[in-house]
Specification:
Helix 4 packs parallel to helix 7. This protein folds into four domains: 41 residues, no CATH class; 98 residues, Elongation Factor Tu (Ef-tu), domain 3, CATH 2.40.30.10; 122 residues, Rossmann fold (3-Layer(aba) Sandwich), CATH 3.40.50; 94 residues, Beta Barrel (Elongation Factor Tu (Ef-tu), domain 3), CATH 2.40.30. Helix content is 22%, strand content 39%. The chain is of the alpha+beta class. The strands form four sheets. Strands 14, 15, 16, 17, 18, 19, 20, 21 and 22 form a nine-stranded antiparallel β-sheet that branches. The chain is globular, with a radius of gyration of 25 Å.
């Protein structure tokens, strides 16, 4: 710790060390006392509660029932229900605020974190927010920020590659950068993945990794268009393309990589950059079905009454459950498949069926996507 200038008070330094155990609850009071003492005496932290609120977005995600949910930390001023705010490229009027217990609050003073409802879209973790006088000013500021971000992303455009042909492009002298566009289910996950990818040793000055865009939610048509124009690779972390955007990506030749474990994404990108990619198992989508109704079967669980939208739903294949473009559950299996009262081996596009995947949190309009892993040598 001393290498980073952290010297304990016991050794003549000015840093307090408190031994705690969250599991046993040891020394929690001493930790809180040290925090208060440091902030009041050593740092003399102060904030004006009588001005318009300003602060940072700590986390944000899209809730199906409530819309955009942003956890913000008020750094100065007081945030009130009904205030018009701008947070990154999102704006809106504060419809409600929730504290750490999920209870409604009417105002939030400095140093208080709250969940804010009412933003037009999902901001990014780390975005600053401020209160403005009305919605019109908030919209103008947000549109200006969005335009700057869009122009900055377009300025990073270059020629198209995939993780498979990345090394050949390097050898031919066509590329010196690996461009990535990251989409995830939560802004904190996206930020953590971006930070980890940028720390990869990409080979010194010869090659580099650049993130040309990031966002929260399903992979949209705009993401695919940006990746196509920039020749970038889309990294999806616990998200999937909206609607038929998967087919659009195939037509435009955009490489989309799906991950549910952050270290898997890091390892594969690092292997691609260093030319260490080995033959892998490739995920091949078999079909998808939309849930129309959910039936509860005793001793078995919930069965999804579905219609096959494309491809084939086959018994004993792998499956995932997708809700509003986000992966709700991974590594499921099609345990049962029925057409009316008869068991079926497979059901094709356009037909209705009952699907059991051994997972009970199934809702109407969810999508069940089936796939299999096929061995594929890399280029």
């Amino acid at each position: 710790m001393t290498e980073y200038g952290l010297v304990a008070e016991e050794y003549g330094g000015d840093v307090q060390f408190v031994d705690i155990s969250a599991l046993k609850g040891d020394n929690i009071d001493a930790l809180l006392e040290s925090i208060v003492l440091t902030s009041d005496a050593a740092l003399d932290l102060q904030a004006n509660p009588d001005m318009d609120a300003q602060g940072l977005a700590i986390e944000a995600y899209l809730d199906r029932g409530r819309g955009s949910m942003a956890t913000v930390l008020v750094q100065r001023g007081t945030l009130n229900v009904g205030d018009s705010i701008v947070c990154g490229d999102a704006f809106g009027r504060v419809r409600a605020m929730l504290d750490e217990h999920g209870e409604n609050v009417q105002s939030a003073e400095p140093s208080r974190p709250v969940q804010v409802l009412g933003l037009t879209n999902v901001p990014s973790a780390g975005d600053s927010f401020l209160v403005v006088k009305d919605d019109r000013v908030a919209r103008q500021i947000a549109q200006q920020r969005e335009a700057r971000e869009r122009f900055a992303q377009q300025a990073k455009s270059a020629r198209r590659v995939t993780l498979d042909n990345w090394q050949s492009a390097i050898k031919e002298g066509e590329r010196s950068e690996l461009l990535l566009l990251i989409k995830g289910d939560m802004s904190g996950s996206v930020e953590a993945l971006e930070e980890s990818l940028l720390k990869i040793d990409a080979g010194g000055d010869e090659v580099s990794i650049r993130i040309i865009g990031r966002g929260v939610g399903a992979i949209t048509q705009n993401d695919i268009n940006l990746a196509s124009s920039a020749d970038a690779i889309i990294v999806g972390f616990n998200v999937r393309p909206e609607g038929k955007n998967s087919q659009l990506a195939d037509r435009m030749g955009v490489d989309i990589r799906y991950y549910s474990v952050i270290y898997q994404a890091i390892d594969e990108v690092e292997a691609a950059v260093k030319g260490l990619l080995k033959p892998i198992y490739e995920e091949v989508q078999l079909g998808s079905a939309e849930v129309r109704e959910v039936f509860k079967v005793p001793k078995i669980g919930n069965i999804a009454g579905s219609i096959v939208r494309d491809g084939i739903i086959r018994r004993n294949t792998k499956a995932r459950l997708i809700r509003e473009g986000k992966v709700i559950s991974e590594n499921l299996n099609v345990e049962s498949l029925r057409r009316f009262k008869d068991d079926a081996t497979e059901v094709r596009e356009g037909f209705e069926c009952g699907i059991g995947v051994g997972y009970n949190d199934i809702r109407v309009e969810d999508v069940i996507e089936t796939y299999e892993m096929q061995e594929k040598p890399r280029d």
